[in-house]
Amino acid sequence: MSSHRGFILPYLTSAPLGGRILLGVLALLAVLVPFLNLAFPPESALHVPTYVVALVGKYLCFALLAISVDLIWGYCGILSLGHGAFFSLGGYAMGMYLMRQIGDRGVYKDPILPDFMVFLNWKELPWYWYGFDSFPFAMLMVLLAPGLLALVFGFFAFRSRVTGVYLSIITQAMTFALLLAFFRNDMGFGGNNGLTDFKDILGFNLQSDATRIGLFVASALALAGGYLLSLFIVKSKLGRVLVAIRDAESRARFLGYRVEHYKLFVFTVSAMMAGVAGALYVPQVGIINPSEFSPANSIEIVVWVALGGRGTLHGAALGAVLVNFAKTYLTGAAPEFWLYFLGALFILVTILLPKGIAGLLGNAPDSWTAFSKIGARLSSLFPGRAP
Question: Is 216 within 8 Å of 31 (Cβ atoms)?
Fold first, then answer.
């Protein structure tokens, strides 16, 4: 136990204040939210409704996804516009397990084939669905499916020294190709409708409050684990090499570092983190379909990281939560303005907050100074006319 403590504590103590606040908030949420949901009746003012538990759990999954993008973009300079693909593959792996758990409780009562396969007149289960009736196998696929794709894609891309905007374009092309493939009914993944109508996970009813709480706590633990893993990487010697590659790749290569190996490693780790986020997301929202592969989703992830603060990890998580909270509110109050808001937000962040919210608050002695900086920059962009 002491050896594990001696291994972890140096990284916890070296974490920035924002990171320690993030871990503290996650610990508080993991204890307080289940208590308020289960201990108080629905009519109580202290009761946290189950739909709020699921909603915040979804935000935590998005925060983990944002950290996975910040790990490669903020510290290695790899701007991926295809991380939605890795998130979706992890989600589909979980969705396939959940579909196999339905058994003969589906609409068509087939104990083996999911309902959509029966509807499409499939006669037998495709070979790539074998094993998904086992939870350990499904969790292995949650890591391997996005990890192997990132490994193969990154091997050819980084070996060919594709960088900058060209790499961003081909990552976006990758996720768009997967979008088109998963839309096809003959792919065996539910086509346009995707996978849904899940019943239970590990024998527990997905609609029960206790299961929702369990998934919420699992999401909080996964986010904390993803943050600590990323912090371990960026604080290590490997992390210093990654920053050197980000700032001066040609110089790092000249010094003898195999740049493509470092990029491939961190890209693969990032993809696997995104897959875990997708796997936790699916049982909480109850569906996974090809729209998750949409390139617009991957671009939105970059907005989260830029808003929160590129190269801060905890800032990326903050940006994901803030943007998705705004999305939840605006898509209900004024859905036609959401995309305009998102575009304007990205432009304003680029102009006014190049280091994001975390960078601004980290350099300001107090929040008043931070907001004064924003006001001053807005005033410089829109100067008033002299009377």
Answer: no
Q: Which domain holds residue 55?
A: 2-352
Q: Using CA atoms, how far apart are residues 78 and 176, in angstroms rounded to an integer?
A: 19
Residue 144 lies in a domain: yes
Radius of gyration of the chain (CA): 22
Tens-place pLDDT, residues 75-87: 999 999 999 999 9
pLDDT computed for residue 2 by the predictor: 46
Report whether pLDDT(199) > 60: yes
Closest CA to 101 of 298, 283, 373, 330: 283
Q: Is 44 left (phi over 0), alpha (psi -120 to 50) or beta?
A: beta
Taking phi over 0 as left and psi of -120 to 50 as alpha, with beta for the rest, 125 belongs to beta
pLDDT in tens, 103-159: 889 899 999 999 999 999 999 999 999 999 999 999 999 999 999 999 999 999 999
- Specify whether the CB–CB gap between 308 and 315 falls below 8 A: yes
0.85 exceeded by pTM: yes
**Inside any domain, residue 113:** yes
Q: Does a structural domain hold residue 275?
A: yes
In a domain, 82, yes or no: yes
> How far does the chain reach from its first CA to its final CA, in angstroms?
72
SS3 of 40, please? coil
Query: Which CATH number do you get for residue 181?
Result: 1.10.3470
Return mean pLDDT, the chain. 89
What's the total number of domains in the chain? Answer: 1
**How many angstroms separate the CA atoms of 246 and 262, rounded?**
11
